[in-house]
Amino acid sequence: MSAAPGQHPRAGEAAGPRPTLNVLDVITIPAGGNAAGGITASKDAAGQAERAGYRRYLLTEHHLNAGIAGGPIPTLLPLFAERTERIRVGTAATLLGNYRLIQVAETFGALAALYPDRIDLGLGRSGVVPAATPEFPKHLAAKFQLQRRLFGRTDGDTTDLESLIDELRAFFAGTSVDDQAGPFVAPPATAATPQLWVHGTSAGISARVAGALGLPFGSNYHTSPRTTLDAIAEYRAAFRPSATLAAPYVMVSADVIVGDTDAEAQRAAKGFGHWVASIRNGRGQGAIPYPSAEWADAHPLGDDDRELVADRLATRIVGAPEPAAARLAELAERTGAD
């Protein structure tokens, strides 16, 4: 489904029975590679996605992972916009707790001015730092604490997400007012029109705020398949029409590994379980460089790690293009994804 220039997508605009396809890229570093190689490969993939007719190319924000180069997204995003001509590029999501709001407004205002009708600003909460528990071991909690310190996060910095989005919209509208200084503007944010999205994992603040403000909602099925349906239901229940969106509009992410044949796809997918386990088990430096099939064959997953990633293994889509497309269509029907 495509949106009118400068406006949010509206439910019911799709030209065919299947939803728009987008790419969500974490900018993975392959085994034996480095960050520069990963970024270059992703830029090339964005061009391929545009030529193939994908609607959006979205970058995720992850930090302190040995196998992910997608950290400095505000710096990288212009490179993707410059490499392409028509495809929308954006974030899914910009973690608001990692930035001053004025930085987000000016950065995406400038991008929206330079690349009109092509910039998506996906907003996400930075979340809270969990306490160490048997289910969330001490070393993993310490990693979250480290990120909190390095990015200067504070308790509850994104709890009032609705107020943050209202303030961001005021920057873009040129209607900001300070209690002491009075009205002010922040070029190049003023009059900028990036498409605003809210992304979330569970039925909580993000889903409710997206609905209440009449914004489109991205649900992270690929990271938390068990909570997706509840999150979407929460969003739809809270939805109120806005000036830019008349009805709920949902984007759903999925792990998809495709090859020319099923056998090729299965081979490419051999390192997937190890990669996800490295994110979840907290034993190393976050996501490892994506393993080769040969390495994965030589290092089978242990029982504990296999149980840890069972949901991701069960819900990923692996195969040749036609069966993979059919499974994506099933997921879209089950979730009502646009």
TrEMBL record:
Any one GO MF annotation of this record: oxidoreductase activity
Superkingdom of origin organism: Bacteria
Keywords: Oxidoreductase
Record keyword Acetylation present: no
Start and end residues of each Luciferase-like domain: 27-337
Keyword Oxidoreductase: yes
EC number: 1.-.-.-
Pfam short name (any one): Bac_luciferase
PANTHER family linked: LUCIFERASE-LIKE MONOOXYGENASE
Family: To bacterial alkanal monooxygenase alpha and beta chains.
Descriptive protein name: MsnO8 family LLM class oxidoreductase
Organism: Gulosibacter sediminis
